[in-house]
Automatic annotation (TrEMBL), chains A, B:
Entry GO MF terms: DNA-binding transcription factor activity; transcription cis-regulatory region binding
Record keywords: DNA-binding, Transcription, Transcription regulation
Domain HTH lacI-type: 2-56
Keyword DNA-binding carried by entry: yes
CDD domains associated with the record: HTH_LacI (cd01392), PBP1_GalS-like (cd06270)
SMART domains: HTH_LACI (SM00354)
Protein name in the entry: Transcriptional regulator, LacI family
PROSITE patterns associated with the record: HTH_LACI_2
Classification via InterPro entries: HTH_LacI, LacI/GalR-like_sensor, Lambda_DNA-bd_dom_sf, Peripla_BP_I
Keyword presence, Zinc: no
Pfam families from the UniProt entry: LacI, Peripla_BP_3
Length: 335, 335
DNA sequence: TTGTACGCGTTATCAC
DNA sequence: GTGATAACGCGTACAA
C-alpha cells in the first residue's frame, strides 16, 4: 500500500502538503493540489485510517450497544444509525448486551477499549448511577429509549407513557370498559411507563386497573400467550387486552385462536411498537407506532452534532407515538 | 489515559517489557511480570488499540456487509457473527448493501478503507468477477450464501437446491400434483437454486413445472400477495403453492385470506427460511429451515482460523436445510 | 503557500 | 530475561 510519503515524493512536494490536500483545511495552491491529486491517483493511494486516528486521536468510529441484533426492533434502529454515519464517513461498531447487566457493562467496556469517539447505548439492565459515572469519563454517549434526569440532554426517547395512554384511550373510545393488560417486565422503565399511561387513560373514565386483569409478561411471544391464558383462567370478564408490545400481542393472538376464541369478535387486542410483522398477523394488529428508525437516525445526528461539530444539524429528543388502528380491535358489544 | 510508558516508569522496567507482559509471548520473569501488572492496575491502564493496530498492522476488526440490517434474516446472522468475535476480542464493523451493485461495492470499499483484517460478505448484486478480483488483493474475505467455483474455499452457503427439493417433495408426498411456485428474483442465485430443486422434485414424480403456475416475486411480502393473485387469476388449478421464502409465503397467506380462501383447506402453502415470525403466522407456516445463525458463526470461525491462526477451529462450508412441517400444508384431497 | 520536525502509543528487532 | 531504539503512517505546530 502506498503511503503519504511516496505520494509526496512522486508529486515533488513535502509530506505535509499531501496531508493538507487530504484534509483540505489550509489553503494549498491549485497547481500543487493538482500535482498531489494526480500522484495519489497514479499510486492508487488510500489513507491509512489507523494512522490518521493515532495522529489525530479520532477514530471516526461510533460504538453501538443494543440488546439484541435479531428481532424486529433493533434492526430498524441500526438501519437508521448506519445510514446516517456512513454518509458522514464514520463507521459503526456493534455489540449486543442481551439485557443483562454484566453483559451490557462488558459491552460498554469493549467499545471503550476500541477507542470509539462516541457511544450510542440502548441499555436496560445497567443502573442509572453507572451511566452517570460513565458520563464523567471522556467518551460522550447518547441514551436511546431511556430517561435519566441527570443526563437529560443525552437522552433520546419515546414518550412511552403517552403511548400507553393512547392505546387504552382508543379502546375506551370503542366502548370497552373491562380492559386487561399484559405488561412487559416491570423492572424496565418503558414497561412501567406504558402501564402508567394505561392507568391514566382509565382514570380519565373514572376506572381503575383491576389486579385480576393484569399480567406481567416478558416482551416475548410466549409472555403474550401465557398472559392471555392466565387472564382467561382468572374468570374475570374482559372485552379487550392491551399488550405492552407487538410480540406479546402476537402471542396472545395465537393463544386466543388455539383456545377457540376469535379476535376481535370475542375480545379486542392492542399491540405496541408497530414492528413490521404486525401487519402480517391475523387479524392485522392495531398498535402504537414507535418511530424507531427515525430515533436511531436522530441518535446518530446527536453524535454528529456534539462530537463532530456538525452544528447545522437539529436534534429532537422526545418522540411522540401515535395510534395505528387496524383489524384486531372492534367496538365493544353493548351490554 | 495512562500510556505504556507511564506503566514502565512506575514499574521500574523498560517499555518493551511492559509490552511483553501484555502480549505474553516471550517469557518474562514472574517477579517483573507482577510488578508490571500491579503498575497497570494502579494506573488503570488500558492499551490503546489504535496504536497497537498501527504498530502491529492488525486492526482486530472485521467488516461485515449485509443486504439489510432490518428484517428477520440478517439480524440472526449478525448475532452469530458478533458473539463469536466478541469472545475472541475482535470487533465488528457493519455496513448495509441494499442489494444494489453500486452500494455493495461502495460498502466493500468503505470497509477496506477502515483497515479491516477480514471481510464477511453477504452480497447479491456484485458480479463474480468483481469478487474474484477482490480476492487477489490483500484483505481476505468469506462469502456467505453464495457459491463461486473459483472461490470455493471462501464460500459458506446453504444447499438451496436441496431446500427447494425438500419443499416440493414434501408436497408431492402429501399427494399434491398441481404445485404453483412463487420464486425470488431470478437474477439471484439462491432464488434460481431453490427453483431448480423444485424442478428436480417434480421430475422425480414425472412432472414438470408449468409456466402458468410460476410467478417471479421479489422475496418480500408484496411479492407473495401479488404472486398469489396472479396464480389465481391464471385460472390454472393448483392445490399447493411453494414460496421461495417465508416473507412471500406470509404475503400469500394474507392475500389468500383476503380473497376468501382458506389455507390449507383450499390449498397448501410452503415457505422457506424458517424466519422467526413463521411460527406466528396463521396458519403456522410449514417451511424449510435455514440455519442462518450457525452459518454466521461459521463465517466468523473461518476468519478466526484463516486470518488469526486459531488452527483448532473446524470450519464447515455447506449447510443442509431441513423440513419444518407445521400447519399450512395438508394432504391433497383425493381427486 | 510550503517544508521541517516532532509526537501519537504501540510492536518488534536488535543487542546485551 | 531485559533494555534501547527504530519503525508504523499520518497530523500539525512552527519556521521559512
Amino acid at each position: 500500500m502506498a503511503t503519504i510519503y511516496q505520494v509526496s515524493e512522486l508529486a515533488g512536494v513535502s509530506l505535509a502538503t499531501v496531508s493538507r490536500v487530504m484534509n483540505n483545511n489550509v489553503r494549498v495552491s491549485e497547481a500543487t493540489r493538482n500535482k498531489v491529486l494526480q500522484a495519489m491517483e497514479q499510486l492508487g493511494y488510500r489513507p491509512n485510517s489507523i494512522a490518521q486516528s493515532l495522529a489525530s486521536s479520532r477514530s471516526n468510529s461510533i460504538g453501538i450497544l443494543v440488546s439484541e441484533l435479531h428481532g424486529p426492533f433493533y434492526g430498524e434502529m441500526l438501519t437508521g444509525i448506519e445510514a446516517e454515519f456512513r454518509a458522514a464517513g464514520k463507521h459503526v461498531i456493534i455489540a449486543a448486551g442481551h439485557s443483562e447487566r454484566a453483559t451490557e457493562e462488558d459491552g460498554i467496556e469493549f467499545l471503550l477499549s476500541r477507542n470509539c469517539d462516541a457511544l450510542i447505548l440502548h441499555v436496560e439492565a445497567v443502573s442509572d448511577q453507572y451511566l452517570i459515572d460513565l458520563s464523567k469519563k471522556q467518551t460522550p454517549f447518547v441514551l436511546l429509549n431511556r430517561q435519566i434526569t441527570a443526563l437529560a440532554d443525552r437522552c433520546i426517547s419515546l414518550d412511552n407513557e403517552l403511548g400507553g395512554y393512547l392505546a387504552t384511550r382508543y379502546l375506551l373510545e370503542q366502548g370497552h370498559r373491562h380492559i386487561a393488560y399484559i405488561a412487559g417486565p416491570m423492572w424496565k422503565t418503558d414497561a412501567r411507563d406504558r402501564f402508567h399511561g394505561h392507568q391514566r387513560a382509565l382514570a380519565g373514565y373514572q376506572l381503575t386497573a383491576e389486579e385480576a386483569l393484569f399480567f406481567e409478561g416478558d416482551f416475548r411471544e410466549t409472555g403474550g400467550s401465557k398472559g392471555l391464558q392466565a387472564l382467561l383462567a382468572s374468570g374475570r370478564p374482559f372485552s379487550a387486552v392491551v399488550c405492552a408490545n407487538d410480540e406479546m400481542a402476537s402471542g396472545a393472538l395465537t393463544a386466543a385462536r388455539e383456545l377457540g376464541y376469535e379476535v376481535p369478535a370475542d375480545f379486542s387486542v392492542m399491540g405496541f411498537d408497530n414492528v413490521n410483522f404486525a401487519y402480517y398477523t391475523y387479524p392485522k394488529l392495531s398498535t402504537i407506532d414507535y418511530p424507531v428508525s427515525a430515533m436511531g437516525q436522530m441518535a446518530a445526528r446527536w453524535v454528529l452534532q456534539q462530537v463532530y461539530q456538525q452544528s447545522s444539524i437539529e436534534v429532537q429528543q422526545i418522540f411522540d407515538p401515535h395510534l395505528i388502528p387496524r383489524d384486531s380491535v372492534a367496538e365493544a358489544a353493548v351490554t
